Amino acid sequence: AEYMGRTAKARKMSQDERFDGVFLNVAQSAQGIEPLFDAFFGFLARKTDFYTGAGSDIAETTTMKFFKKHQDSAKEKKAQEEKRRQREEERKKKEEEKRREEQANRKKIEIEEIIEPMETTASVPAAPEAAVAPVASTAVEPAKKEEGEEEEDSTPPPEGNGGSTDKYVWTQTLGALEIVVPVPRGTTAKQISCDIGVRKFKLGLKGQPPIVEGELHDKVKPDESYWTVVDNQAVQINLEKFDQMKWWKCVVVGDPEINTQKIVPENSKLSDLDGETRSTVEKMMFDQRQKQMGLPTSEEQQKQDMLKKFMAAHPEMDFSKAKFS
Question: What 3-state class would DSSP assign to 176?
Fold first, then answer.
């Protein structure tokens, strides 16, 4: 019975639509609803006895009968479309809420991983140093490096291209810094005082001494920098660098510094840069590697190449006693 009902409905729709092509042509020629009605009722007046055959009252009643029929059908169709639209919006809304919740959970885990070691370190008291009597040293001191010879640095690259202090953890890209400062659990945004200047930075709880305060390592763009409270237990600050081609050694002047020559940008980040910026970054990376290996940088290589060409072009000149830096 259900199949028969669907078949009958489909057949009726097909019959209703069999004149659509003709009506579309007429509608396009008429160029409007009122001209279309005018043409149709004019046709009935000229070619039929619609108005006079059964009386004007019946003609008007018949017209309104079919007007009401199709009006109800159009309203029902619109209501069904509105329900479908609302269901689709509700589905998208739930998906977005689920995505945000998953993102918030991931951020919460990241913050807890940062805060937990810092809290553990702060809670463990330092062991008292034992008094040791001075003993004459018999060890042979290592030979001093020759002047200009650099100490070999075996430390690994800084994680996230940043570092940490007893008050915050920070990471960076060429364009921006992200700083995470732990605060007492339950802290809200209204309790936070944060001032971001071109070269000054201060953050703390209102009515209390600042947690972090001082001169920034370099200039930032205050209007494009912002902060937010994460899970009511940390403040995340994003600072937009003014010079977006420079790595920072530290956030605040006087805080522990990192070795920027150890920084190796991720390949995925390089691929996101435009051609000119990427070329500059790759040149910086090449020069850093050359310096670490005691080899000439790109500029030094270029000077050497120019000198070789000049020497080749002037074989009559004697360069044996010439000194080059």
Answer: strand
Q: What is the dihedral of CA 219, 222, 226, 227, to 10 degrees?
A: 70
Report in angstroms the alpha-carbon separations of 189 from 1, 203, 284: 64, 12, 40
| 88, 228, 255 from 232: Cα distances, Å | 34, 10, 26
Placement of tokens 């039929």 in the chain: 48
End-to-end C-alpha distance for the chain, whole angstroms: 98
List the single range of 7-16, 174-183, 215-224 with lowest mean pLDDT: 7-16
Question: Coil, helix or strand for 156?
Answer: coil
Q: How far apart are CA 106 and CA 104, in angstroms?
A: 5
Q: How far is CA 287 from the centre of its chain?
A: 30
User: Model-level pTM?
Assistant: 0.42
CB neighbour list of residue 218: distance below 8 Å, 6 or more residues apart: 199, 241, 242, 243, 246, 248
Beta strands in the chain (DSSP E): 163-164, 169-172, 176-182, 192-196, 200-205, 212-215, 226-230, 234-240
C-alpha 87/C-alpha 260 separation (Å) is 53
